[in-house]
Amino acid sequence: MISCSLRRAAVDTQWQTLALPPTFLLPLRARISTTPSFIESSSPQTPFLPSQHATEPPSSTRASPRTQFSVSRSAVQNHPPTSPPEQQPISPNPAAPIPLSSTVRELLPLLRVQPSHYITAHIHARPYLLTAGDTVRLPFHMPKVKAGDVLRLNRASSIGSRDYTMRGAPYLDERLFECRATVVGVEAEPMRFVEKTKRRNRKVKTVKSKHRFTVLKVKELNIRSVEEVEGVDAVDSLKEGVASPRLAVA
After folding, report:
1. Mean pLDDT by 10 residues, the chain (250 residues)
2. Which of 94, 155, 91, 149 is nearest to 123 (CA)?
3. Which positions ≥6 away from 178 have C-beta within 8 Å?
């Protein structure tokens, strides 16, 4: 019985294959897929629900698109979008000055008594070891300065003398010293010509460059005493309490 049924099934499939035309004669859709596009099942399949909050309401309570639009519009009118909180204006007055430590109070007079001082000033994040009367040529052209302008160098990592040195972490308090430099002028290097070529290329490109440098001269380098530092703090606090707020010039 089993052999007969197998033989019959093989014969039926052979006849079915012979009855079908060759593949190249079939249309494009038939060649792509010969299975039906859908299969009817006896039991209806429920759609996949990702979560309970995303379930759709029943058809009886489902509203029309117009109703949904009107409801959403009314909800927006009743609950307007909240604007971000306004930023509080920054007070032009600086914060309270940091009091001097006992070590600074003790050693600052000894450093001030020394005859000559040096300072490691930072200009555009570059350190320069300077003393009074030095002339320094910056390796760049400082913008928005003219010859004769006086600049106060208020950022320094160390200041010292022959016997004492005060170092900051990373910078010192600008109330402890006063360093001023004058802009002497702008120097320019001679014109340079650089020839640039590439491999397997006969073209030669000539590039011209002429850099400009700002020259400064240190006119003043003083170390303030403890009384001067505290006096400056007292004057600043008095001005803040009596006079109008100071404006910071950028």
Report:
1. 67 59 63 50 49 50 46 52 50 61 92 94 96 96 94 96 93 94 96 95 95 96 92 55 33
2. 155
3. 152, 220, 221, 222, 223, 224
